[in-house]
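Reviewer 2 asked us to include a model.

Predict the structure of this chain.
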Amino acid sequence: MATRSERAAPDVTECDREPIHIPGAIQPHGLVLIADPATRRVVAGAGRLEQVFGDDWLGGSLDTMIAQDVSALLSTLVAGPGGTIRGATIMLQDRRFDVTIHQAAPWLIVELEPASAEPLLAGEMLSWMDSIAAGFERAATIPSLCARAAIAFRTLTGFDRVMIYRFLDDDAGRVVGEDRDPALHSFMNHHFPASDIPRQARALYVRNRTRVIPDAGYEPAPLRPAGFETVDLSDVALRSVSPIHVQYLHNMGVAASASISIVKDGILWGMIACHHRTPRIMPLDVRLAGAALAGGLARQIRTKEEAESYRERLALRMAEDSLVPALKPSLRRAVADRHEEIRRMIDGDGLALIHSDGIEMYGHCPERADVAALGRWLVGRNNTDILATRHLTELMPGSERFADRASGILALPVPEEGATLIWFRVEQVEEIEWAGNPHKGVALDSNAQLTPRTSFESWRESVHCRSRRWTLEQVEAAHRLRRAMREASDARERLRLYRDLERAIVEKDAALVQKDVLMKEVDHRVQNSLQLVQAFLTLQARDAGPGSVADQLIEAGSRLSAVALVHRRLYRDDQIETIDLARYLEDLVEDLKGSLGMQWAPHMSINLDPILIPTDRAVNLGLIAAELVINATKYAYPGGTGPIEIALEQHRNRLRLIVADHGVGVSGDRRGFGSRMMNAVMARLGGELEQVDNAPGLRTIVTAPIEDATS
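Predicted model (structure tokens):
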């Protein structure tokens, strides 16, 4: 295993310059005819032309040879990307061929590919694709979406292995979904270096969404006669493949491959890579179906990414709304009073405020002297913009000494306060598993002949001095927070003109302090009482041993956790009438992980839209959520564990709470859903509870008004 502070990219300049769009040859399983568009006479071609058309094919009429009126096709049909037109299927020597015409100035290029022996029926294919699209919509996250996609594309293509391959910021790729023959080893989560797919190949993958190599051991069929070697075959599916890529496939033990591009908003997001151990063809109808399915996958990826971004922005907005009132006295007081919320808002591990009188630090921060040095460096940059970096050592010399506590920073200068607010993120050592050593990617032999890498055995690399990434939404939130600080500073200046109001303000502050002291005392006593009861229930469950009694005691403790959480929210939040249901459910799930056993922790995922809801309704929904999660752990995976997904969505004035598993599905043993408590709670909420097949597993949907309909 290698350990590196920076990952050096291999020199792939020669690969990027290889002219793969003009190979001068095609793959021999099909035929290509090149014709003059004015006369429609064939001037060149490739493949077994003599066997199909006879020795006098050169100079023949294109219309006659492909048995259709090319002029009519060109004038009546709408061309696809690259001027591509699909012609009618024809019979040649008792074999059906798919016809594709490319308008590639100055030529017409016609390719003939063997058609499917049993073409896909449009009705059946549309029905199947509609079912797959519905499954894509049900996926709660991008990883689960990619897992479903790998299964769907392997079903469609029949290849031994199908991988969903996502491009990263540095153009390397990572396998994020896989379905394979059990006899094959897995590439799931493996990284592939950028040199495996050169730049000009990625550009062609955007232009041509599908690419097939039915037999990696083929002998190229050259374009003939001589003089046509430089014809641009960018849009030709039969285009011969780079010898480097063919050798690459041999090195992987792949005899046939296919790729389908995942293009999101015009950008190559990733690819569906298909591998087979023996030669295998992917006919045109399957490729077209695959391209359409990939388009649907790209739209779902975009939808889920946008939803995730929206939820993050909304959560940040709500956190900002909670913090803005605290900025009124001064930034230093706000940080002193609300430092934990400020730190968590931008997801920092530590927080520091550097001001004229000193430094205040909270959480995981570097030593005070190092923070002071960082402050001087920030001032020396003479830049008042926000600085966000996950790799501080790239920018600040000497910062390696405290990279373990501050590999990443988000620095927010506040000139109005004469201060700088800094969020720190600790070093996150990345254990990257590569499919082979990426630093032995592309080599040059003594004759300057490009050769691909030969090893695809797992190779681990540790990358140091990096932190978690700062998201665009977090940086935008920091900008808004600084704007709020500026407005708060301006407001304080204006308040100096209203000295007559100071006495009233002081009296109000005194009342708030008294209220805060009272609430703190009440909260302390209530929490102590609830903890005693929970401890008693836990001891009783342990003494009872495995069985229904212990299960009931654990469930009672979980319900008690829901009540305790609401009480903590009542004390911590400024608004006691309403709370953020998403934050409440997130804390509730964390408590449930502890009570149910930490073996469930890695299997529970949450996907929650922030929703402000009356506190009494939040209590009821917390009880329902706890009940549904407990039932899923008890019945979905008999004797084991498995994924449990908790989601919260808002639809106008109603909310949907969803608890889904991928277990055994609906079972008569799940009697908890019809219990008296659940019925009573649902009646109080005025909502509905529905159970549907999650294919596989059970998906329970609770729908209820956000506000009480009678209020």
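Residues 1-14, 440-451 have pLDDT under 50 and may be disordered. Residues 328-428+465-492 form a domain with the Beta-Lactamase fold (CATH 3.30.450.270). We have added this to the supplementary material.
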